[in-house]
Amino acid sequence: MSNVSAAAESGTDIHSSTRVQPASNRLVTVAVPVALILASFALLYRNVLVKLVNDWATDGNYSHGFLIVPIALYLAWERRARLAELERRPNLLGLVIALGSVGVLAAGTLGSELFLTRVSILGLIAGTVVFLFGWRHLRVLAFPIAFLLLMVPLPALIFNQIAFPLQLLASRAGESVLMMAGIPVLREGNVIILAHTTLEVAEACSGIRSLVSLITLGVVYGYFVDRRNSVRTLIALSAIPVAIVSNGLRVAGTGIAAHVYGRAAAEGFFHEFSGWVVFVVAFAAMFGIRYLIVASIALAHRFLPQQASV
User: Fold this and answer.
1) What is the phi/psi pair of residue 226, to 5°?
2) Predicted structure pTM score
3) Predicted local distance difference test score (pLDDT) of residue 23
4) With contact defined as beta carbons under 8 Å apart, do 132 and 34 qualify?
5) Which residues of the chain have pLDDT under 70?
6) Is beta strand 186-188 parallel, antiparallel or unpaired with respect to 198-200?
7) What is the pLDDT of residue 12?
8) Contact 189, 168 (CB under 8 A)
9) What is the pLDDT of residues 77-125, one digit of tens each?
10) Nearest-CA neighbor of 197 among 209, 207, 185, 188?
11) Could you state, in order of their start, the residue ranges of all structural domains in the chain?
């Protein structure tokens, strides 16, 4: 009785402990499964993650992979308020998805298919979210999870199907620009023959590196500058023609430099530096494309109502 009166006099809520307990229980019921899942994930995907990070470090086509995970985590953190408002509705179908993803991991490991083992990470994350929290949480986290796909290198079969046509396209573009500049040139496949030297548009010069990087930047840039999904999609897709055109101009510029200054101008520092310059110019071009997209949509919105009223 004295305890109750003391609590009443001090103004302390005697039910505070019963109110705090449910929150503590919810924390435990979420933290313990998450901790177990993270430990299991580290055990299952240890070798996959080590090889993936090694590819980021050694393959220039996918060096942007180091940025993907931090950006995806930020995108998920940005949605914390929306996630807090949602009611947890765990669904056993999420466990099915997670187990299916582990099956894909096993199949990829047995078949030595790196792409399958890496893509299964996304399925496992999605399944875990559904199993622990529900479909509504997955819908909110869909973009951050899908964004992780950009960290996964393309399968060799698909990579080669894209890289070689890009080599030929860059060679044709370079040849056309050189001919317009009045420089004698002969092209045989991806080899450009000049009067004093020969240039080969190798796989590294195909433009696929800038293509993958620009698509990644286009997705991030579009997400932060505009809320409309249509504009975001157009900005990301614009990276494809921008990368192709910029790489063709780079090949042409290298050919002009080699014609004027000799083969040394197409190698070493100039070659690497021109790649960075062209990439920066290409990214700047995406700013202009975004402006054109937004201006075109605004113009269409102004024009179409007038048409409807007529």
Assistant:
1) -150, 140
2) 0.78
3) 53
4) yes
5) 1-30, 203-204, 206, 265-266, 268-269, 271, 304-310
6) unpaired
7) 37
8) yes
9) 999 999 999 998 999 999 999 999 999 999 999 988 899 999 999 999 9
10) 185
11) 45-153, 157-309
Q: What is the pLDDT of residue 265?
A: 67
The two structure tokens encoding residue 224: 């932060």
What are the tokens at 152?
């996964």
Quick one: pLDDT at residue 11? 38
Distance CA 136, CA 142 (A): 10
Residues counted in the chain? 310
Amino acid at 18: T
Answer yes or no: are the C-beta atoms of 46 and 52 closer than 8 Å: no
C-alpha 179/C-alpha 183 separation (Å) is 5
> d(Cα 31, Cα 36) in Å, to the nearest integer?
9
Nearest to 188 by CA among 204, 177, 201: 201
Q: Which pLDDT belongs to residue 268?
A: 66
154: left (phi over 0), alpha (psi -120 to 50) or beta: beta
Write the secondary structure of the chain as one string of H (helix), E (strand) and C (coil): CHHHHHHHHHCCCCCHHHHHHHHHHHHHHHHHHHHHHHHHHHHHCHHHHHHHHHHHHHCHHHCCHHHHHHHHHHHHHHCHHHHHHCCCCCCHHHHHHHHHHHHHHHHHHHCCCHHHHHHHHHHHHHHHHHHHCCHHHHHHHHHHHHHHHHHCCCCHHHHHHHHHHHHHHHHHHHHHHHHHCCCCCEEECCEEECCCCEEECCHHHCCHHHHHHHHHHHHHHHHHHCCCHHHHHHHHHHHHHHHHHHHHHHHHHHHHHHHHHCHHHHCHHHHHHHHHHHHHHHHHHHHHHHHHHHHHHHHHHHHHHHHHHC
| Dihedral (CA of 181, 268, 160, 58) sign | negative
End-to-end Cα distance, the chain: 82
CB atoms within 10 A of CB 165: 12
Q: What is the pLDDT of residue 183?
A: 85
pLDDT of residue 181: 85
